[in-house]
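Appendix B. Raw example, untouched.
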Amino acid sequence: MIRASQNLKQIVSTYPFITSLFRNAGLGAYCEPGFIDKAGKYMQLGSILRQMRIDVDQFVKAINMAIDEQNDKCGRDKELFNVKLLCLLPCGLRNIFREHLTSFFSDHYSQYSSFRFLCEGNVNHELNFYDQIDSIDDLNQLPELLITSDFNNVMHQRFLRRFADSGEFVSQESTVCNSWWNEVGFSDTLRHFTMLTANMLVIVVDRRRLGNRVMPAGWEDLLSDNFRRDIIMRGDGDFFCNAVLLPLYQRFGANAMIALGCNVKCGMHPAQMVKQLNGNSDAGATVYVMPWFFTLTITSDWAAIVWPREGAIASPVSMLVKKDAAERYHDLIDYIMSASTAELLVNHKFPTLHHGVANRDFGSRILWTGWDFIRDNDLAEVKLTIQNLFMPSYTSGAGGIT
């Protein structure tokens, strides 16, 4: 429990994550490492707040609520490793997939009465759960079946070499794939990952704000100076979506990350983007990058949905099945890979790999990073390179290409 009488250095060194609260309250200068090291131990939190005319009791309460929330989150993160099936899914898929699985377990209660599963939103854990993946050395620490989204840490070289390359996981995909995917090689040729679907990312343009500018038709158009500080994509503070940045870096190179950083106005959750599009707030922008699923909720007549000429970005949703669990849970796996699951996916704008179900209403082109790039590069290092290119231009607006 934080108290107003504690000094700043003690608070920040114990709970570094709360510095965002200080910045939001206009106290960012007090959180700079140089200031903390030199003066932090001499300054009480209460004194700073009173000097800045901030309600001491309310601010201390907010800090303690944030600490409690973080502690709860840590507890939930530990729980994620104690289930048989863990699904970390895109927001648009989480609830419907949870209901779909619950139906299966209800029908197979006697067999699965003690089986624990959890469906969570991927975005809630991409900055904590996945970091813990990097410290795992024992396969038994992982769930029997693990469904994850985006280019996360299970696709980093450390995890691939430690577990996937040693044959610990076996793909459950049919050898006959849906023809929609044929040209991009979405399935894992080494048959370690079971590819389930992809969160397809597209461009949405608010024509009210476009003016005389040419309507963007593809991803490369978003790198132009025409859209300086006029693009919103998924992000929050100092984190932006790797599912967008990684494929664009691969296709267009380092300068593209600098240009895109200059053009991004801010980060939002896709649901917030839809709210901006359906309204007319100054907080909005001309261009949005969002999942195909969320375009279903756009009601504005001014919104133009663009399936980019290079293809919609395929952000992978994949499953890892331990070799010794494949037979033990074969009926559950068959259900996850079934035509009924495929129909569920397609009906909610998530394409299927099931060869017996058509990917209806999707564009024809797909922008997929590819397994060669994933295995030939350490994505952990690539992501760091991207952030070091993107973030300085995002925060300063300098640079860019036309």
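End of appendix B.
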